[in-house]
Amino acid sequence: MNTLLPPHLRWPVAAMALVIVLSNVLVQHPINDWLTWGAFSYPLVFLVTDLTNRGLGAAAARRVAWIGFAIAVLVSLALAPWRIAVASGAAFILAQVMDILVFNRLRQASWWKAPLLGSLAASVVDTAVFFFIAFAGSDMDWLMLASGDLAVKALMAAVLLAPYRAMLPRLDRWAALSTPAAAPPPAAS
Known about the structure:
single chain, 8 helices
């Protein structure tokens, strides 16, 4: 039995790591003066976290965040400049903590409030921390990039409500698969 990564967490961890690594590469490629390609891919981490949180709870979401963080930082160090990797790691984990915290406080509200407001709060944290660490002191107009990045993340938070809503019916099945089968009753002696 693999206790480090149970089977029901493999897909969320893999998705998390893939999105972070992809975003670390894409954030280095500006579309224009105020936006990078990473702004479009990165908000998917909040979708992964929110689905995990809704289906399996905050503890599972935190575990996915920490494991995804470790995997992503290791891979990012190999693929991206060290400053991007460090910025990504710090911003990621702080934003994940914010997303999980806000989501849990709003989890009983309408289906869309927890993922939307959690993602928006996390996006503010992520953008501020990432762009400051990654680009402060560089030639890049990072405040302009951060503004564009945050605007896209806010838009993506709303757009990603559609796949979140579509996945809600499947979460009960996912949660059931993650629960160990009930032990058979003890044999009568």
